[in-house]
């Protein structure tokens, strides 16, 4: 199974905390059997909004999620000649918004959940995964994001992910949209009362957390300020251009204060022409869709390339500090 840290049949892997360090768990206690399957043909995010007994659904502190345990398996098609289902999932950090929606701040590398037949038919198998530099702030939520797995012949409704339990007092939110759950996406979930996402996270803080994460000091040189992730981050993305010639690429501000940025959008390639520019002040620990008004010539250039143009977005932080300027290739669609 690709990228899995470990798998344990019937129970979670115990991770002993380092002496004097704060390591804690949050999310599902993984007590319920995995008897409920969710099937969707496109990308779908699932996250807990309530847990039976009042267990915390969000990160209880700043730090690094070092392990994610998922109870359950993906189910096969059952039809003769069916291929192995697409079982790749990603874990994502969701930043709660004031209106009840969430914004995808960080996405892990991909992991494969096991198919039930691969673990002896044990539908209560617990798999443990180790995301890389999976940093969170207190109150952030963690989702499980599958890729649907649609196949017109063998999985017309998507792959069944049987990683949920029927638990009174628990509620799981879900959101489905093809390519609609990438970094910077903002959405609200449809709640399913009485259904629990059987997923539990291990949170490391202080000396157990990477110095790349808030509050983490592991790996930092003695007497030196821990190196943090870049103050501003931009992921590869597709951004639409509306009738007013405005596009809104997603940009993440790591903070700790507001990110005052200057943006320049240019056509990719040698001598790429400038398409537009903007300035903005972003709230920390949030992904913001920043409006950039394109020139008329820029819009004509997009339309001349069959309404899809590869562009380079350059983002410079006003402080000019190391790591404060980034560039990313994005796709503009008119």
What features would you highlight for this structure?
globular, six-stranded antiparallel sheet, mainly beta, 2 domains, 334 residues, Immunoglobulin-like, 1 helix
Structure, described:
The chain folds into two domains: 4-208, no CATH class; 232-333, Sandwich (Immunoglobulin-like). The chain has one helix and 26 strands. It has one helix spanning 296-304, and strands at 4-8, 23-27, 36-38, 44-50, 63-71, 73-74, 88-96, 102-107, 111-112, 126-129, 135-136, 141-146, 161-176, 186-187, 190-197, 199-204, 232-233, 238-240, 246-247, 250-253, 259-267, 274-282, 286-289, 292-293, 308-317, 325-333. The strands form five sheets. Strands 3, 4, 6, 7, 8, 9, 12, 13, 14 and 15 form a ten-stranded antiparallel sheet that branches. Strand 7 and strand 8 form a beta hairpin.
Q: Report mean pLDDT, rounded to a whole number.
A: 86
Parts with pLDDT < 50 across at least 5 consecutive residues: 1-21, 319-323
Please describe the biggest sheet, giving its number of strands, its sense, and whether it closes into a barrel. Answer: 10 strands, antiparallel
* Rg, alpha carbons: 21 Å
Proportion in helices: under 10%
Q: Terminal Cα separation, in Å?
A: 40 Å
Number of E-type strands: 26
What general form does the structure show? globular
Structural class: mainly beta
Helical segment tally? 1
Q: Can you tell me the number of structural domains?
A: 2
Portion of residues in beta strands equals 35-45%
SSE order in H/E notation?
Answer: EEEEEEEEEEEEEEEEEEEEEEEEHEE
């Amino acid at each position: 199974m690709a990228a899995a840290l470990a798998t344990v049949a019937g129970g979670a892997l115990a991770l002993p905390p380092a002496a004097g360090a704060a390591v804690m768990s949050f999310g599902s206690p993984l007590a319920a059997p995995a008897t409920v399957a969710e099937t969707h043909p496109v990308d779908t995010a699932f996250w807990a909004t309530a847990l039976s007994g009042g267990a915390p659904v969000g990160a209880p502190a700043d730090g690094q999620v070092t392990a994610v345990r998922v109870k359950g398996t993906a189910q096969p098609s059952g039809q003769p000649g069916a291929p192995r289902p697409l079982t790749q999932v990603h874990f994502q950090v969701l930043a709660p918004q004031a209106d009840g929606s969430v914004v995808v701040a960080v996405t892990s590398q991909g992991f494969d959940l096991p198919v039930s037949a691969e673990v002896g038919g044990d539908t209560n198998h617990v798999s443990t995964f180790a995301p890389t530099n999976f940093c969170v702030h207190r109150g952030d939520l963690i989702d499980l994001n599958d890729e649907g797995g649609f196949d017109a012949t063998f999985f017309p409704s998507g792959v069944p992910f049987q990683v949920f339990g029927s638990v009174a007092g628990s509620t799981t939110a879900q959101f489905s949209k093809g390519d609609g759950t990438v970094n910077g996406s903002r959405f609200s979930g449809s709640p399913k009362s009485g259904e629990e996402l059987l997923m539990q996270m291990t949170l490391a803080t202080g000396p157990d957390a990477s110095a790349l994460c808030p509050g983490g000091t592991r790996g930092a040189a003695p007497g030196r300020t821990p190196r943090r992730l870049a103050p501003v981050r931009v992921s590869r993305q597709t951004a639409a251009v509306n009738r007013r010639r405005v596009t809104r690429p997603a940009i993440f501000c790591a903070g700790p204060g507001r990110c005052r940025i200057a943006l320049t959008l240019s056509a990719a390639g040698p001598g790429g022409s400038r398409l537009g520019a903007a300035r903005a002040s972003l709230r920390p620990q949030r992904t913001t869709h920043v409006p950039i008004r394109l020139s008329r010539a820029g819009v004509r250039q997009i339309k001349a390339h069959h309404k899809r143009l590869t562009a380079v977005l350059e983002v410079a932080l006003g402080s000019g500090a190391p790591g404060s300027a980034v560039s990313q290739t994005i796709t503009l669609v008119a």
